[in-house]
Design brief:
Blueprint: E1 11-14, H1 19-29, H2 33-41, H3 47-54, H4 58-61, H5 71-83, E2 88-91, H6 96-111, E3 117-119, H7 132-140, E4 145-149, H8 156-164, E5 168-172, E6 187-189, H9 209-226, H10 252-261, H11 269-280, H12 285-293, H13 302-319, H14 323-330, H15 334-368, E7 377-382, H16 389-400, E8 404-409, E9 414-420, H17 427-436, E10 442-445, E11 449-455, H18 459-469, E12 477-480, E13 482-483, H19 490-497, E14 512-525, E15 530-536, E16 543-548, H20 555-563, E17 568-578, E18 582-592
Parallel strand pairs: 1-12, 2-3, 2-4, 4-5, 5-6, 7-8, 13-14, 16-18
Antiparallel strand pairs: 8-9, 9-11, 10-11, 14-15, 14-17, 15-16, 17-18
Helix pairs in contact: 1-2, 5-9, 6-9, 6-10, 6-14, 9-10, 10-11, 10-13, 12-14, 12-15, 13-15, 14-15, 15-16
């Protein structure tokens, strides 16, 4: 039965562990055997490592900031700017990680009495990186120091222009170093510099920009405290102006949002921050009002950050000005926070409608041109909404199990592209190579996500490059952790698995297999975007509410269900407990029994 092809075309791999090994590990760690089996499936067998994974502590995972290259130089430059009352501008990025990273440093400096200028780029007019508009604003405002967050590592020319204008720069980034040469900045604090080594068990190379800024602020606060800043010492001339040191733990909630929305691996410091944030509920007023607008009582899981808070915040940058998300985080009154939160939720609803239309257009193009036969999917259109192309690329990647590239061309013939990848295909390296070969105007990114600029004349060559470069060895597989039996109690299984939370990249949710279930009833929800269904089988409880998300790219699953309604199916998915949906089974794939 394990070799049948599923409706999505994926292979189902039933993971097996030695029973004695599972039992021994369960006893050593003090967890149910289901949990020890899942941990073994994720590659964890060391008892001490597992104990740290299950109970991550900030004090055990936050590294000495000075071990990051250029950290002390960057901190010293900012301390000097504070001491000399220089004009500081923070330059961020338009996605959630860029906004949260910008907020953290703006908030900190404002709290200690030195509010900086800040600027977030407009996705449509400025593009990614340090824009000419940002540099012009810095020059016009007489800025002495720019602190660049969530970008900058590849901005050699832009930092050069800042230097020519007499503006110093400190870069706090996490993107991979693409070029052999780094910008001529005062400091480049980036755990993914080629010459930066890992630090113990911190997993700093998986930090998002907000996470790197958080470590920077730890170092900055240490330096300021050493200088007597917080007790009227040498930095402040008038001791009556003594400051109170901000509580950096109050920032963990925002760091967690950036971490989950940038899909960072939940290991080391990332895991400690996200778990601490979920347990301690330290969020700005704006996030609390956004939760109310989303009908969420409180953040209870990592999913709440990645699937609800993040998309609503991201809607600002996708459809307009990311400053709205920044203003939400900085909101000081209930009325202001509530007003912005409601606008963001409305914008996110509009984003979903645009996304649905674009996904349908893109899927139609793939089918009409038989692009699914290629190793990679590359689609483009005139006037497609630039703010949504990344989401569409992700949907295509999920549907066709191939790296996907989505391009929106403007009236000037310049295309803005976004890409999403499958395991084993490093998009950042691929796009950088294409750029170096003259197939792109610009390009770069992470291993699994990237962005690029392209002309229409380059499309054919870029498509050929993708199809000749991308490996065809990738076999889409679902690794199944647990098989439901007639003796299984789904509620108890969910309770046992919660020990491993938070789930996310690197610690993915356990996949559960349910054999011979009957679909009793279905109902489309959220304007047809998702499907709710009740399934029944030989387990407890006898009937379970299930969900299939993003119907627009899952017709290959939905159509066979509709055609064979009343038959018995095998399903694979996740048990999920959420305030909005209760206990549900999130269906990932289906096949006939």
């Amino acid at each position: 039965m394990h070799t049948k092809i599923s409706f999505s075309g994926k292979t189902w791999n039933f993971m097996r562990n030695n029973n004695e090994t599972v039992t021994e590990l369960a006893r050593a760690v003090g967890v149910p055997e289901l949990v020890s089996s899942i941990l073994l499936n994720r590659g964890f067998s060391d008892v001490s490592e597992i104990k740290m994974l299950l109970d991550p502590k900030l004090k055990n995972t936050i590294p000495d900031p000075s071990l990051l290259l250029d950290m002390d130089k960057g901190v010293e430059r900012l301390v000097g700017a504070i001491v000399n009352n220089e004009k500081i501008m923070i330059l961020g990025d338009y996605d959630v990680d860029g906004v949260t990273a910008t907020y953290l440093i703006v908030k900190y400096l404002s709290d200690i009495g030195y509010p900086p200028l800040y600027r977030l780029p407009n996705r449509f007019t400025d593009g990614y990186g340090i824009s000419n508009g940002a540099l012009n604003a810095a020059i016009e405002n007489g800025v002495d120091l720019i602190v660049v967050v969530d970008t900058g590592t590849s901005c050699i020319d832009e930092i050069g222009r800042a230097n020519q204008a007499g503006i110093d720069s400190v870069i706090i980034d996490h993107h991979s170093q693409v070029y052999d040469t780094l910008p001529d900045a005062v400091a480049i604090i980036n755990p993914n510099r080629r010459d930066q080594v890992e630090i113990g068990c911190s997993h700093i190379k998986h930090l998002c920009a907000a996470g790197v800024v958080f470590i920077f602020l730890i170092a900055l606060q240490r330096a300021l405290r050493d200088r007597g800043f917080f007790n009227g010492g040498e930095v402040i001339n008038d001791s009556s102006n003594a400051k109170h040191a901000p509580n950096l733990l109050d920032m963990t909630g925002v760091v967690a949002i950036g971490t989950m929305c940038d899909v960072m691996e939940l290991k080391g410091i990332n895991r400690a921050i996200v778990k601490y944030a979920i347990l301690n509920n330290r969020y700005p007023l704006g996030i609390k009002r956004l939760l109310q607008a989303l009908n969420i009582r409180k953040i209870s899981s990592a999913d709440d950050l990645g699937f609800f808070v993040g998309p609503a915040m991201n809607a600002a940058g996708r459809l307009g000005d990311p400053a709205m998300a920044m203003k939400l985080l900085l909101a000081a009154t209930d009325d202001e926070a509530e007003s912005i939160a409601l606008k963001l939720v409305s914008m996110n609803s509009k984003r979903k409608m645009i996304e649905k239309r674009m996904v349908n257009d893109a899927v139609a193009m793939v089918k009409a041109e038989q692009l699914s036969r290629n190793p990679g999917i590359c689609v483009y259109g005139d006037g497609w909404h630039e703010g949504v192309i990344g989401i569409v690329a992700g949907r295509l990647k999920d549907k066709f199990n191939k790296p996907s590239f989505v391009i929106s061309f403007g009236e000037d013939g310049i295309g803005k592209g976004s890409a999403r990848s499958v395991p084993g295909i490093h998009l950042g390296e691929l796009l950088a190579t294409a750029k170096n070969e003259g197939l792109l105007v610009s390009g770069g990114g992470h291993s699994q996500a990237g962005g690029f600029t392209i002309t229409k004349d380059q499309i054919a060559g870029f498509s050929d490059f993708i199809n000749s470069t991308v490996s065809t060895d990738y076999v889409p597989t679902l690794d199944i952790d647990y098989i439901i039996t007639p003796m299984s109690d789904l509620t108890q299984i969910s309770r046992d698995m919660s020990v491993i939370e938070p789930f996310g990249r690197g610690i993915e949710k356990p996949l559960i297999y349910m054999e011979r279930v009957k679909i009793e009833w279905t109902k489309k929800i959220c304007s047809g975007a998702h499907l709710m269904l009740w399934i029944s089988g030989e387990y407890s409880p006898k009937k379970v509410k299930a969900m299939i998300f993003h119907c627009s790219v899952k017709r290959n699953i939905l159509e066979p269900i509709e055609q064979n309604f009343g038959d018995m199916f095998d399903v694979v998915g996740y048990i999920n407990v959420h305030e909005q949906y209760g206990q549900s089974f999130f269906v990932e794939d289906v096949r006939t029994s």
